[in-house]
Amino acid sequence: MNRQQLEYFLAVAEHGSLGHAAAASGVSQPSLSQALGTLEKELGAALVRRVRRGAVLTPAGHAFVPHARLLLRELRRTGDVLDQLDGAPAGELDLVTTPVLAVDPCAPLLGRFRGLHPEVRVRVQVTDRDEEVGGMLADGRAEIGLTYLPLDTEGIAVRVLAEHEIMAVFPPGGPPLPDPLPVRLLAGRETVGVTGHSLQRALLGGHLAAHGVRPRVTVEVAHREMVIPLVLAGAGMSFLAGRVARWAAGQGALVRRLDPPLRQPYGLAYVPGRLSPAARALAGLAVARENGGNAGGGSCGA
């Protein structure tokens, strides 16, 4: 079993077609089929079943997917360790985060990281579901996560970095409001909400309920990117965190802190013992950034 066989198998699992998997992998379909057949012989089980319009995984194939991801990640990590013997971290780094954290602090953090480690190729996956972060780390789809906390997934370690303050954001041109804004004054206000469940939504709902306020969601969207344009257009108020709230204020929205305030911690998540040199470098940079220090301060256990 080698790295190439694992990559081809996972490509088939992702694309559902030998032809599409071969194209994505940059090889001919016969070469991919041959490598896949060799892998199946080595494992003693059929992983893929060819069908008229593509390929589907067998039960054994479905069971092997998470193991293949972890094996492939370990092979890459070993290669990255050897590459680092000649200098700075290199190789690939897979990070998973959530939409708000992708903007702040992920974007500036990765900008700084790439400046320090140009040999590392970073892939960022964004999920709307906080609870999915732990699963993606556990099964090898990502190596390190930047997520809101708490994250209760067995086998996943977390390192608290900082917190976001959640603020109320109103359309431009409305009546003046005190800053900070007493939570009780939010009762009955038309609100732009985001479909689904998240740690932030649950935290906000509990905070409002504790002060006798129940959000009146009049516009609900599936994509968070729509929230600020809708607020600016006058569709209702909403709640935003961190740099996203400050950006909305720069676009003309009226932003107010809450009284009492509402803050949500965020941090790094990872499987102990699985961090590559690149992931350790990113973790150290993130810790140093939040502590106001220099790159390299702080670390996560490998």
Coarse shape: elongated
Structural class: alpha/beta
Mean pLDDT: 87
Biggest sheet details: 7 strands, mixed
Helix content: 40-55%
Radius of gyration: 23 Å
Record field, number of beta strands: 13
Order of helices and strands: HHHEEHEHEHEEEEHEHEHEEEH
Low-confidence blocks of residues = 293-299
Cα distance, first to last residue? 25 Å
> Which range does the strand content fall in?
15-25%
Count up the helices: 10
What does this protein structure show overall?
It is elongated and about 70 Å long. It is an alpha/beta fold and 302 residues long. It has helices at 3-15, 18-25, 29-43, 59-84, 99-116, 130-138, 199-209, 227-232, 242-250, 277-290, and strands spanning 48-51, 54-57, 91-97, 120-126, 144-148, 157-170, 181-182, 190-194, 216-221, 238-241, 254-256, 258-259, 263-270. Residues 293-299 have low confidence and may be disordered. The strands form 4 sheets. Strands 3, 4, 5, 6, 10, 11 and 13 form a 7-stranded mixed beta sheet that branches. A two-stranded antiparallel ribbon has the order 1-2. Helix 7 links the parallel strand 8 and strand 9 (216-221). 43% of the residues lie in helices and 24% in strands. It contains 10 helices and 13 strands.
Q: Characteristics of this structure?
A:
302 residues, alpha/beta, 7-stranded mixed β-sheet, two-stranded antiparallel sheet, 10 helices, 13 strands, 43% helix, 24% strand, elongated
